[in-house]
Automatic annotation (TrEMBL), chain A:
Pfam families, per the entry: PaaB
Organism: Winogradskyella epiphytica
Protein name per UniProt: Ring-1,2-phenylacetyl-CoA epoxidase subunit PaaB
Classification via InterPro entries: PaaB, PaaB_sf
Domain of life: Bacteria
From TrEMBL, chain B:
Cellular component terms (Gene Ontology): cytosol
Domain of life: Bacteria
Organism: Winogradskyella epiphytica
NCBIfam families xref list: PA_CoA_Oxy1
Gene Ontology molecular-function annotations: phenylacetyl-CoA 1,2-epoxidase activity
Protein's name according to its UniProt entry: Ring-1,2-phenylacetyl-CoA epoxidase subunit PaaA
SUPFAM superfamilies documented for this protein: Ferritin-like (SSF47240)
UniProt GO BP: phenylacetate catabolic process
Length: 95, 327
């Protein structure tokens, strides 16, 4: 029996320069170097990326969907944060 | 407190209410993500189906791995190698997607290795000639694609995302298989015979791969609701037959079913009786290669144990060393 299981890592890939790193999935690896190598083989077999980030899953703090109300609802009634809230005469074409 | 722990101390009415909201979200085509509340049955059904799917990808490497060293040319060899590597990748996408439901990778391996979890019964058939590599790509991957494409829209986000990636990669698998069949069919009489023999052996198992008939299928109704399934097994099978028969014609090969006949009225092919006894025998572990496949899989896992342990020990040691340097 193995003494210890390989930890879980989250993989983020930049598909090309100019784009952000995006979450691609996860994998198990003994350490960060191995996680990078495995991510290369698992997630970029067809030129899907030019850069990879790996982070051990336990280091990610996530918001709880049960608290989505207090977390995200305050933004919903603030229509004045959007340009369409403001009345302008039609003569003003592009603003 | 995690959502699932909280569920255990909620009243029945609260749970009913949550379940109703949950079903409504799915009906609206909203995706369910790992930390969202979900009914226990949804979680369990997904763990079962997704892990079986992952196991199928992993065990599916074995019948083809058999031919990598004996591929007839370098072109065929690199293609087969890439296909088998994709299957390993697909297994890994699916295992990690399943882990988001709260089951560990080790538990899943344990279930596969002890026979508690199933994998697709098709991989319990032997690959005895090179033409089997063609027939598997053409028919087995063909049937898999038909099964998998609707899953790209399934309700569980991580599963849907994994399936999109799988489906993108899968079409090369089918094309490389068909090309092998085409080459053999246009070759010497012996080569054509070899292709026909492979079709004869893989046709019926490929039809069975799409699952028991609707009347026998126990999970269909619930799975349809959760979009784990968009079409019934019989509909998928008909779709597979209708699209594959013309491809066999192009190859100049004969589908081994005397009852196969175009039905003008239905706009589909009628086909013969499937031997479901054989299907259930293979599912229950009595197929030609069930034991061999599990022996190979468990053996690989056990022989790799020292490597996994050594990698972990090395990782911990390097970590320690780094800490000391900082001080």
């Amino acid at each position: 029996m193995s003494t210890k299981n390989w930890p879980l890592w989250e993989v983020f890939v930049r598909s090309k320069n100019g784009l952000e790193h995006r979450h691609f999935g996860s994998l198990h690896a003994a350490d960060a170097d191995m996680a990078l190598e495995n991510a290369r083989d698992v997630y970029t077999r067809r030129n899907e990326g030019v850069s990879i980030w790996v982070v051990e899953s336990k280091n990610i703090t996530a918001s709880n969907p049960e608290h989505n109300g207090e977390m995200f609802e305050p933004a919903q009634d603030k229509v004045y944060r959007h340009p369409t809230f403001y009345d302008l005469p039609d003569e003003v074409k592009h603003m | 407190m995690s959502p699932e722990r909280k569920a255990t101390i909620m009243s029945e009415e609260q749970i009913k209410n949550l379940e109703k909201q949950f079903e409504e979200r799915i009906a609206r085509d909203e995706k369910i993500e790992p930390k969202d509340w979900m009914p226990e049955k949804y979680r369990k059904t997904h763990i079962r189906q997704m892990s079986q799917h992952a196991h199928s990808e992993i065990v599916g490497m074995l019948p083809e791995g058999n031919w990598i060293t004996r591929a007839p040319s370098l072109r065929r060899k690199v293609a087969l190698l890439a296909k088998v590597q994709d299957e390993a990748g697909h297994g890994l996408y699916l295992y990690s997607a399943t882990e988001t439901l709260g089951i560990s990778r080790d538990e899943m391996y344990e279930q596969l290795h002890t026979g508690k979890a199933k994998y697709s019964s098709i991989f319990n058939y032997p690959t005895i000639t090179w033409a089997d590599m063609g027939a598997i790509g053409w028919l087995v991957d063909g049937a898999a694609i038909i099964n998998q494409v609707p899953l790209c829209n399934t309700s569980y986000g991580p599963y849907a995302r994994a399936m999109i990636r799988v489906c993108k990669e899968e079409s090369f698998h089918q094309r490389q298989g068909f090309e092998i069949m085409l080459k053999l069919s246009n070759g010497t009489p012996e080569q054509k015979e070899m292709a026909q023999d492979a079709l004869n052996r893989w046709w019926w198992p490929a039809l069975m791969m799409l699952g028991p008939t609707d009347a026998e299928s126990v999970h269909t109704e619930q799975s349809m609701k959760w979009k784990l399934k968009r079409k019934s097994n019989d509909d998928l099978r008909q779709q597979f037959i209708d699209q594959t028969v013309p491809q066999a014609d192009i190859l100049g090969l004969t589908i081994p079913d005397p009852d196969l006949k175009w039905n003008e009225e239905r706009g589909s092919y009628d086909f013969g009786e499937i031997n479901w006894d054989e299907f259930w025998q293979v599912v229950k572990g009595h197929g030609p290669c069930n034991k061999e496949r599990m022996k190979a899989r468990v053996g690989a896992w056990e022989r790799g144990e020292w490597v996994r342990d050594a990698a972990m020990a090395y990782a911990e040691k390097s970590q320690e060393r780094k800490k000391k340097q900082v001080i």
